[in-house]
Amino acid sequence: MEKKYDYLIVGAGLYGATFACLARRQGKRCLVIEKRSHLGGNAYCENVCGINVHVYGAHIFHTSDKRVWDFANSFVPFNRYTNSPIANYHGKLYNLPFNMNTFYQMWGVRTPEQARKVIEEQKSAAGIGTPRNLEEQAISLVGRDIYECLVKEYTEKQWGRKCTELPPFIIKRLPVRFTFDNNYFNDTYQGIPMGGFNKLVDGLLEGIEALTDTDFFKDRKKWEACADKIVFSGKIDEFFDYRFGKLAYRSVRFETETLDVQNFQGNAVMNFTSHDEPYTRIIEHKHFEPESPAYMSGRTVISREYSSEWTEDSEPFYPVNDGTNGTLYGKYRQLADALPGVLFGGHLAEYRYYDMDDVIAKAMNDFERFSGTRHEG
Fold first, then answer.
1. Is 300 in a helix, a strand, or coil?
2. Fewer Cβ neighbours under 10 Å: the N or C end of the chain?
3. Averaged pLDDT for residues 81-103
4. Angstrom distances, CA of residue 15 to CA of 7, 75, 106, 131, 355
5. Of 18-22, 99-103, 314-318, 333-337, which range is least confident?
C-alpha cells in the first residue's frame, strides 16, 4: 500500500488530537483512527437535555502552564469553573480538599495552629516515622480522624485494595492547606470549555481526516503501511502482542440517570467516602457549566461511579503502579524505545496517570522531538 500519510495517529484522545493538530500546522498529512465510536477519548461529552455529560467521568481542565492554557483557549473559550468537591461520610458533609473548613467541621478548630497541633498529635500517637504505605502517609498528612472518615474506605473502594497494601506516593498528590480555601487545585488557570470538551477536540482535529469505529489491530498491516510514521496512544502491551504479559488497570463503571429536578446535590462532585455506598462519587454534570441555558431547566443528569478491576470488556482507566507492573512496563518500554518510526504517548502507551494539561504538554514536546519542529504557541 502506498504511504499516503506522514503520520498515522492511533487514538483520538487529547494526546493524539494535539499531535495531529500540530503536525497539520506544519503541512503534514495525518490520518487519525479511533476504535471507539466517537472522538475525544475519555474527555468525550454526550449532550443530554442540553447538558454536556462527561461520559467517562469528571474532566476539569487546570494548569499553570500558560502555553498550554493559551493553546487550549485558542480553540474554545473556557468558563471559570472552580473545582470544590464535597465529601459525604454517613450523611455528614465535609469540604475538600482538606483545608481549614474541613478541620473545623471535623474538630471544631478555628486556627491553623490548632489544626496542625491535632494532626501532629494523631501522627505521633500512630508512631509513624517514614511512611511505608498509603495509610501511614495519609495519617502523616491529615491525622487519623480524617484518614478514617474521608480517606480509608473511599481509597479502598477506588483501588480494590487495603490502604496498607498501597504505596504512599498515591496520596501525595492530595492537596492539604491551612487556609479556608475550597479550591481543589492550586493551578493558575482552571475551567471547562464552554459548550463541552467536544468543542476542544473538534477544534484540534479540524481539517484532519479521522475515522471512528476503526481498530488498528484488526488490520494492522494495512494501517502500518499507510504512513511514514506512527503515533500510538493505545495500550503499550497490546502493541507488542502482550509478549511479557498484560499490565493491570483499574476501571470505572458509570450509572447515568436523568432526573426531573432542577438541582440534585448542589455541587458537581460529591465523594461518598464510606463502604455504605458502593459507588465512589456522584457527578451532577450541569454544575460544570452554570452559564449554559440548560442550567436553570427542570432536569438534571447525574452519574454514579463504581471502581472495579479492569477486564477485556471494560475501559482501562488507571494504571496499577506497583512494583510488578512497573517492572513489566519497563520491559515494554525497552521494546518501544528500540522501535524506529513509532512514537508512544498518552496514559495508556506510557502506563501513567496524566492530567489533561500534562498530556497536551507532552504531545507538544513529543511533536517537537519526533518531528524536529519547534511549536511556537
1. strand
2. C
3. 98
4. 14, 15, 41, 34, 11
5. 314-318
Average pLDDT of the chain is: 95
Q: Which residue has the cell 458533609?
A: 93
CA atoms within 13 A on the CB side of 343: 26
Q: How far apart are CA 304 and CA 53, in angstroms?
A: 12
| Entry pTM | 0.94
> Which entry of 56, 147, 153, 250 is annotated as an active-site residue?
250
| For range 110-138, the mean pLDDT | 96
Tell me, yes or no, if 366 is annotated catalytic. no
Whether residue 318 lies in the annotated active site: no
Residue 29 near residue 6 (C-beta atoms within 8 A): yes
pLDDT digits (tens, 9 = 90+) for 138-189: 999 999 999 999 999 999 999 999 999 998 988 877 789 999 999 999 999 9
Active site includes 369?
no
DSSP state of 150: I
Q: What is the pLDDT, as a whole number, of residue 170? A: 86
Q: Give the contacts of 292 (CB within 8 A, at least 6 positions apart).
A: 50, 51, 52, 286
Identify the active-site residue in 135, 305, 350, 366: 305
| Catalytic residue of the set 177, 299, 304, 333 | 177
DSSP 246: P
Strand 281-284 versus strand 300-309 pairing type: antiparallel
User: Does the annotation mark 305 as catalytic?
Assistant: yes
154 is catalytic: no
Mean pLDDT computed over 267-278: 97
374 C-beta neighbours (distance < 10 Å), count: 8
259 CB-side CA count, 13 A:
16
Q: Residue 81: helix, strand or coil by DSSP? A: coil
**List 181, 202, 355, 358, catalytic entry:** 355
Residue 81 annotated among the catalytic residues of the structure? no
Identified catalytic residue from 215, 315, 353, 358:
353
Cβ atoms of 201 and 17 within 8 Å: the answer is: yes
Whether 161 is a known active-site residue: answer: no
Q: Which of 94, 135, 136, 281 is catalytic?
A: 281
